[in-house]
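Minutes, project check-in

Agenda point 3 was the complex the collaborators sent over. CS summarized: two entities, 418 residues total, and the question is how they sit relative to each other. Sequences were read into the notes so everyone works from the same version.
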Amino acid sequence: VQIAIPLFPRFTALDCVGPYEVLSRLPESEVVFVAEAAGPVTTDTGALTLMAGAAFAEVARPDVIVVPGGPGTRKIVDHPIVDWVRAVHPTTQWTTSVCTGSEVLGHARVLDGLEATSHWGRVDLLSGFGATPVSRRVVVQGKVITAAGVSSGIDMALTLAALIAGDDVAQTIQLAIEYDPEPPFDSGSIHKARPEIVDALRGLSSTRR
Amino acid sequence: VQIAIPLFPRFTALDCVGPYEVLSRLPESEVVFVAEAAGPVTTDTGALTLMAGAAFAEVARPDVIVVPGGPGTRKIVDHPIVDWVRAVHPTTQWTTSVCTGSEVLGHARVLDGLEATSHWGRVDLLSGFGATPVSRRVVVQGKVITAAGVSSGIDMALTLAALIAGDDVAQTIQLAIEYDPEPPFDSGSIHKARPEIVDALRGLSSTRR
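CS then shared the predicted structure for the full assembly.
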């Protein structure tokens, strides 16, 4: 199973490193980070740079793609990642996104007629891509899976691991990465966070998503 | 607040990218990835390379350090990261680790007399560093915080964010990264996973931790 993770400037690191950490543990899998050109791609913070191992042109038939989000998706319409997703999607087994990576899928016309999700602050925009926005953490629609904001990629990837290799493998991976979450607060969704926290974040134009 | 994340060959990516994603959102914070030399450092899978922005010698007084784990910690005793941790620890505000990063703290003699944790498969080894191994997800002992395996770094970092900047900031960050975990299985700890899953993983000598 070849799993390709496409990068673009100002992506959010955890969006893709979460799924990478899960999916790289699938038996007989290969993960490749891919970008316009092989080489460094810097995240939204400017503090972290990941290396793409291959250029889009070199990864033409991936079995699985995981498209991360981040502030960079707001100007993504003219970026080569959109053409690449459009080109590889017909032959993937699974086409997936995390956070605003769903907007990249949208630009590539992958979401037409499907339910899809995104970061809570951007999910409503998916209707502009012909999708029906839904507020679930992981949304499976045929071979297209979208996940909510940033950290949800871990849950998405475990779901995907089970679909690819079965529940036993997925559960083994969950134990390997000791994913038994104990957040110190219960503030991870707009339905649980205190209203003033939600309002504060909505007001931050600089909020990374 | 300067937050330094030291890298070494064959570290586990999520161990540090989870905390990075949380702590980089602290107000007035700066995250720097640091290594023996500035430049690329490759993870345990070989499929992902992160760029260190600075050399150990250039980051002499970090306020916070977050030491990731990974298979690379098994041969870490002679690596410059140990001397660096030993040198910077006396002036940090917080010295933290994720997964077997606690073994790096142990080699640097940070854990003497403290309770500490690690990946479930390696936690007992901490007694060799003068620590008392405990099976909790996040262990706070004065200014030293250790976390359990891989994904626990997100919980640790939210705890740390609250200690540094208060509960409101930590809760705002939790919402920003939409950390409202919904694992599809309940297999994330040895107390919850089915025995055959635990046994399978214990038997895998190649298991990344």
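Noted in discussion: Chain A has a mean pLDDT of 96.
Follow-up: revisit at the next meeting once the mutant set is ready.
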